[in-house]
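for the recovery benchmark. tokens below, seq after
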């Protein structure tokens, strides 16, 4: 985020509250942005253009990560989580953002 704003991490932390930074982190986990996401989009475009012009008889279609090595492994933080792990993450974000747990226990 500091890079996108053109400042150092120390300057970012001086300008942004902990709450706002946490909200940006939550947003970024839902809607990734930044150089890796840009590479992902460019890789999709490059693979699409290359596949339109390739001979279908010569091997498999090209994939985005073949154009951008930074995308090896999917380029995303994809991992499977159990429902219990998902709930724990939601509880963490709720607490970090000052929310209240309204479930009956």
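predicted aa per position
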């Amino acid at each position: 985020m500091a890079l996108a704003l053109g400042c150092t991490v120390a300057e970012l932390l001086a300008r942004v509250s902990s709450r706002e930074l946490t909200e940006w982190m939550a947003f970024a986990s839902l809607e990734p942005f930044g150089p890796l996401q840009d590479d992902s989009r460019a890789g999709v475009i490059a693979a699409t253009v290359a596949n339109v012009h390739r001979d279908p008889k010569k091997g498999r279609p090209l994939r985005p990560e073949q154009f951008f090595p930074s995308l090896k492994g999917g380029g995303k933080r994809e991992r499977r989580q159990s429902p219990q792990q998902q709930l724990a993450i939601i509880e963490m974000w709720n607490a970090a953002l000052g929310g209240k747990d309204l479930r009956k226990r």
